[in-house]
Amino acid sequence: MMRILLVFSFLVYLSLPAQAQIDAYQVGAKGWGIGNATATLADVWAVGNNPAGMTGIEKYAVGFSSHSSPLLISNFSVFNLAYVQNVKKGMAGIQISRFGDKIYSETKAGLAYAYKFEKLSVAMKANFVQIAQSSLGSQARLTFEFGAQVPLSKYLKLGAHIYNFTQSAFKDNAGTRYDIPTTISLGLAYQPIESLSLFGEARATLQMPVSPRVGVAYRLHKNITVRTGLQADGKTANNTQTFAQFGGVGLVFKQMHIDYALASQSGLGVGHHISLAWVGK
Mapped to the 3 state alphabet, what secondary structure does the chain carry? Predict the structure, then answer.
């Protein structure tokens, strides 16, 4: 009975936007706090969101994040490790993610490289993704992604990202194809004053409609930032649009960055996301 409940809960969990981490799953509580509008962010978590943002790291950074599902089932927590390092002609990054248990699990290991041409930052990333499930067995595929970021003015920044543009997919024993979503994101960040940043993003897959996201980050103090965001969360049976609400806070202690975010999703309660990062100077 418990196994049936876990499998059912997992299927519900996968129906939420941006939850299965073999997809272009957003990482880092900073991004979650602003409604997952991550295409323009430039930090250690860019290696998992839009790798072009790795150029925002001066020397190196290492991070760990944990996301617990809204169902509060420990089996469905996602763990991420990220590392970004300045190399001779750009930035190199590594991301390792893990989700699931013995019944179903997903593992992703990615290697990224970003380069900055004057103002334009571009990046490529290759991911080894593996799933293990009773009907599919254990399967592994490669996915590839491309990202770019560029300032349009002193106050405005554009970010773009495409995940799995090669349209890799899994197949079960009967030959049924299970697509790894091809995801496209286009976002803008507007910073009218130093302490305030506004984010907007449109995100879509070949299988799902556009998911608009908006977010706000306000720096209360040089070491304290508060965040909030909103994300389209699908439609109900009577075709009513629902939204996921997000909120969070970021603390900086010298080189240590601590971020927390919560996500409230329709009918499923609240999920929690915490991330820790050490930024070299």
Answer: CHHHHHHHHHHHHHCCCCCCCCCCCCCCHHHHHCCCCCCCCCCCCHHHHCHHHHHHCCCEEEEEEEEECCCCCHHHCEEEEEEEEEECCEEEEEEEEEEECCCEEEEEEEEEEEEEECCEEEEEEEEEEEEEECCCEEEEEEEEEEEEEEECCCCEEEEEEEECCCCCEEECCCCCEEECCCEEEEEEEEEEECCEEEEEEEEEECCCCCEEEEEEEEEEECCEEEEEEEEEEEECCCCCEEEEEEEEEEEEECCEEEEEEEEEECCCEEEEEEEEEEECC
What pLDDT digit, counting tens, does each position of 43-99 carry?
Answer: 999 999 999 999 999 999 999 999 876 555 556 678 999 999 999 889 999 999 988
Q: For the chain, what are the domain ranges?
A: 2-279
Q: The whole model's pTM is what?
A: 0.86
User: 2-279 is classed in which CATH architecture?
Assistant: Beta Barrel (2.40)
